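Let's practice the habit of predicting before peeking. Look at the sequence and jot down your guess about where helices and strands might fall. Then scroll down.
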Amino acid sequence: MKTILVIDDDIDIGNLLEELLVREQYRVLRAYSGTEALLLLSSKRPDLILLDLMLPGLDGEEVLRHICGIPVIVLSAKAGVQDKVNLLLRGAVDYITKPFEAKELLARITVQLRRKPLEHEEPILQYNTLSMNLDTRTVSVQGTDVKLTKTEFAILKLLLHNPSQVITKTRLLEEISSDTPDCVESSLKVHISNLRKKLREINGFDFIESVWGIGFKLRET
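Done guessing? Here is the structure:
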């Protein structure tokens, strides 16, 4: 049974969330302030966290800075695009505006819990002469460093995690959204083109190929 930590000082909303989650067979932990949440996290490790921003003591943004390796979905009344972008860039995997639809929240929770746990991620991804170090966030081809933008790094990381698969454009945009919320369908082609060029400049090999009408994959050697 998966465990979800609800961090929200609003008792009514917290009770509603707990009832909803328990009905879906989740175990629920509760914290009513930022300080209480960090104290609880020092001894418990939930599978996912639902985090409100407006908390007594430490606010939600401060709490987020102390969370590592656990997916965090922010629940907030703040609806501004910049608020969402800022929280996603600071480590949240998703952002839902209050009031929210129960079905949508449950669907987003399911998506995050399907993903590979962050702490089990291998630090080095290797494909032919291409290497990515996730700890130092560096990429090299034949030992030569390649400087990538945040979006290019996220795209390449997804491809390296799935070296034999064709990644559809839709899946690519969805999976890298937490790392690069500014990447949209209209700009994806440019990011891919720039990434291919940077990798190809080292030894002339084009590591990424387009699969017409579907998406992208790593080229077989």
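How did you do? DSSP finds eight helices and twelve strands in the chain.
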